[in-house]
Structure formats: C-alpha cells, structure tokens
Amino acid sequence: MRIVLVGPPGAGKGTQAVRLAEKLAIPHISTGDLFRANISRQTELGKLAKSYMDAGNLVPDEVTIAMAKDRMEQPDAENGFLLDGFPRNVSQAEALDALLESESITLDAVLDLEVPEEEVVKRIAGRRICRNDSSHVFHVTYSPAKQEGVCDVCGGELYQRDDDSEETVRKRLEVYHTQTEPIIDYYKAQGLVVTISSLGPVDEITQRALEALKREKAENK
C-alpha cells in the first residue's frame, strides 16, 4: 500500500507510522529521517538542505520533494510506502501527485488521525523529560513520575521543554490548521481520505487504522 499519514501534532503519528509500516511490510518515510540521512551522507540534496537550515530558513519544497522522490525509488519501496510529515502543504501534495503520475503510481489512502485540540494540548504540554537522559519521558497525567519532578529511572530532574509549553503547542496547531489541514480537503476530493480517532490505547489505534485501510483497499479494488 502507498499511504500518506496526516494529523495534528500530538496525534501519535510517529508511533503509528512505525507500527503500521511494520505491520504492512512497507518502509516508513519521514521528512525528518530524509533530512538526517541526506545530511549525514553529505549528498548534494543534504548539503543544500543544510545550507538553508544553517541560515535559519525553511528547506524549499523542491528540495524536500527531490529527497522524497529519491527515497521512494529505492527497492524496498517498490511495493509501497508510508509517508509521514510529507506532504506538509497543498503545493507539496500537488507535486507528489505529479511525481507519482510520472511513475504511473497512485496513492491507496490518506490516513487522517483525528484528535480533539484540547487533547493535543494536554498530551504535549503534560510531557516531562529527564535532564540526564531525554529518553526518560513522563507525563503528568498519563504516566506520572512516582515523585513529582524526579525521574523514576535515574533520579534526574524532570522539566518541560520550551516547545512543549501550552503557548507553543497552540502556535503549532495554528500552523497545522493553516498549512497542513487543507491537504485533507485536497485528498478528500480524490476520495482517498480515511479518518480514524486517535484516542485510546496505542494498540487499539493501530488495529483501528489497519481495519480502516483494509476496508478502503477493498472498496477501491
């Protein structure tokens, strides 16, 4: 299957992308991974992207699209892929359509992870990270530390990252509503959008997504 995964920050896209790609035996292609891989390998695209990032500028769409094209042409993506974080806006979606059409490939589904805005704020603003080891993550509501402000694992101080503050989360949501959400309507016009709730246990959400994708594939045969 060839899938685009969309949803607001805090919807659990990263978690579900990894799980779904594994279940469907297709590569998970995220823009973050594309940038890191190209920059670490010092490809021409990586050098170009780094020059924009070092200057504090956004990487232009055409660079992101070229990276995605290169990745989708790798042998492991021959039978499908799951795109996470790309396309990020309608112009990228249009470019992706043109790219796929040139290769006589079509998308099977656009999976939209739906979550109420206040839940997004609660999920992200409630995160607390250990200063000693950022892999030790807690949540004031869902997985609180035994002692407030102290890491259960190493005793380090727990803190809230600046980009997890409520104010920053709401700004990120504004950007999502303005730039990324319009691609849902763009793909709805093509009959590709499958919307599921991203509330509940992680395993349940994964199963919900797999069943919805299976139905979509059967209906479009």
From TrEMBL:
**Annotated Gene3D superfamilies:** P-loop containing nucleotide triphosphate hydrolases
Q: How does it assemble?
A: Monomer.
**Sequence positions that bind ATP:** 10-15, 127, 137-138, 200
- The main place the protein resides is cytoplasm
Q: Where are the transmembrane segments?
A: none
This entry carries the following GO cellular component terms, namely:
cytoplasm
What keyword terms does UniProt attach to this protein? ATP-binding, Cytoplasm, Kinase, Nucleotide biosynthesis, Nucleotide-binding, Transferase
Give the UniProt subcellular location, in the record's own words.
Answer: Cytoplasm
State the organism named in the record.
Answer: Streptomyces cellostaticus
**EC number(s) for this protein?**
2.7.4.3
MF (Gene Ontology): AMP kinase activity; ATP binding
* Protein name, entry field: Adenylate kinase
Family matches, as PANTHER family:
NUCLEOTIDE KINASE
Q: Which SUPFAM superfamilies match?
A: P-loop containing nucleoside triphosphate hydrolases
Its UniProt pathway annotation is: Purine metabolism; AMP biosynthesis via salvage pathway; AMP from ADP: step 1/1
What Gene Ontology terms for biological process does this UniProt record contain?
AMP salvage
- What residues does the Adenylate kinase active site lid domain cover? 127-163
Q: Domain text from the record? A: Consists of three domains, a large central CORE domain and two small peripheral domains, NMPbind and LID, which undergo movements during catalysis. The LID domain closes over the site of phosphoryl transfer upon ATP binding. Assembling and dissambling the active center during each catalytic cycle provides an effective means to prevent ATP hydrolysis.
Q: Which reaction does it catalyse?
A: AMP + ATP = 2 ADP
Q: Is this entry keyworded Nucleotide-binding?
A: yes
**Region annotation (NMP) ranges:** 30-59
Q: What class of enzyme is it?
A: transferase
Residue positions annotated to bind AMP are: 31, 36, 57-59, 85-88, 92, 161, 172
Describe its function: Catalyzes the reversible transfer of the terminal phosphate group between ATP and AMP. Plays an important role in cellular energy homeostasis and in adenine nucleotide metabolism.
